[in-house]
Design goal:
- With about 350 residues, the protein is α/β, with parallel strands linked by helices.
- The protein has helices at about 15-25, 40-50, 65-75, 80, 105-110, 140, 200-205, 235-245, 255-260, 275-285, 290-310, 315-325, 330-340; strands spanning about 5-10, 30-35, 55-60, 85-90, 95-100, 115-125, 145, 155-165, 170, 175-180, 190-195, 215, 225-230, 265.
- The chain is built from 13 helices and 14 strands.
- Strands 1, 2, 3, 4, 5, 6, 8, 11, 12 and 13 form a ten-stranded mixed beta sheet that branches. Strands 7-14 form a two-stranded antiparallel sheet.
- Strand 9 (about 170) and strand 10 (about 175-180) form a beta hairpin.
- Helix 8 (about 235-245) crosses helix 11.
- The N and C termini lie far apart (about 50 Å).
């Protein structure tokens, strides 16, 4: 079974090898990376990996501001996508954590009875007081998250989706595929959540614009969760704010983004089942002299960029404000205040 992961990157050099190694462990066979405007050597590392046949790497074809959607449109023409049995569209800070069988994509598909699409709810992992960037697996550094069924007072949580080759695709979205629900005479695709249940009809047909990429998470992650490490260390978050959003030009990351994802209410270490195999796979990748050197270069540039940012008063103030920010999301803080339950 061929599973192709498609992703867009900008200045993710220190984190590439972990993401590739992890996804290979769970059954991804092919990778298609689109990069743009990299200054940390992300593109050089991807080129080296591509020369070894480990990934495909292309410059992002976007001419407008929506880098990800234009890349996904282009991806549909690429052999590693057209020849795939399944397509997995995710970001480098997102790790598919499979809880069933041998913890592979094949096991997830089997548990869900082989539908044409599977949508897996997010679980945002908190920074939880980690300040310094460390060149070690992200999945081992961050183990606390919000209540997985409630995020920022909302029961509906965003998803990412695995898409089977025979899905009646109109176009790939970053979170879910789309089809033309108004066409007559065509059966609706079989589509489940990560518990093997049919997704809600409003989600299936994208008939609720407010929730076209999310649905209630309660009971939806029996077989898998999408661990989203959107913050990582405080150091890396500062570099992320400087970089901006890889998917949309001029999108800022601020204290609201941080607070919404820095709720450490729950501990979840389930993904660490993969850590021994991940450590071995990373060591194997880094044993290639060029790959290892390019990874170290990206790490050094990441740290250098942090240092350059912290030489600016505005970033020192941002660091201090984030360090001291409440871990309760703003929406939940406001709800407690409304109910008279604020601490």
């Amino acid at each position: 079974m061929r599973v192709t992961a498609v992703t867009c990157v900008k200045n993710e050099g220190p984190f590439l090898l972990e993401w590739i190694a992890y996804n290979r462990l769970i059954g991804v066979t092919d990778f298609l990376f689109y990069s743009n405007d990299c200054s940390d050597g992300t593109d050089d590392l991807l080129d080296a990996l591509a020369r070894r046949g480990l990934v495909a790497h292309l410059p992002n074809p976007a001419e407008g501001r929506n880098y990800q959607m234009e890349a996904l449109k282009h991806a549909r023409t690429q052999p590693c996508v057209t020849g795939a049995d399944w397509v997995w569209i995710a970001d480098v800070d997102e790790f598919l954590n499979i809880h069933t069988g041998d913890h592979t994509i094949a096991a997830l598909i089997d548990a869900c009875d082989d539908p044409q699409a599977i949508s897996i709810p997010f679980q945002f992992f908190a920074n939880d007081g980690v300040e310094r960037f460390e060149d070690s697996p992200v999945i081992a550094q961050f183990t606390r998250s919000h209540n997985p069924d409630i995020w920022c007072g909302e029961l509906a949580i965003e998803v990412k989706s695995l898409v089977r080759k025979d899905f009646p695709l109109q176009y790939y979205g970053a979170h879910r595929p789309f089809f033309n629900a108004k066409r007559t005479g065509e059966a609706l695709p079989t589509w489940t959540d990560a518990s093997g249940r049919k997704v809600p009809e409003a989600f299936l047909k994208a008939s609720n614009p407010r929730r076209m990429r999310k649905f209630p998470a309660l009971g939806a992650r029996r077989f898998a969760t999408l661990n989203h490490y959107a913050l990582r260390s405080l150091d890396s978050y500062l570099v992320k704010t400087d970089r901006g959003d890889v998917n949309r030009e001029n999108r800022a990351f601020d204290d609201s983004y941080w607070r919404e994802r820095n709720d450490p209410a729950t501990e979840d270490r389930s993904i660490l089942r993969h850590l021994p195999a991940l450590d071995a796979a990373l060591a194997e990748l880094k044993s290639d002299p060029e790959i290892g050197a390019l990874h170290e270069q990206a790490v050094a540039r990441h740290r250098a960029r942090r240092d350059a940012l912290l030489a600016q008063e505005s970033y020192r103030l941002m660091r201090d404000a984030l360090r001291d920010a409440p871990t309760l999301p703003p929406q939940e803080e406001a709800l407690l205040a409304e109910l008279g339950l604020a601490p």
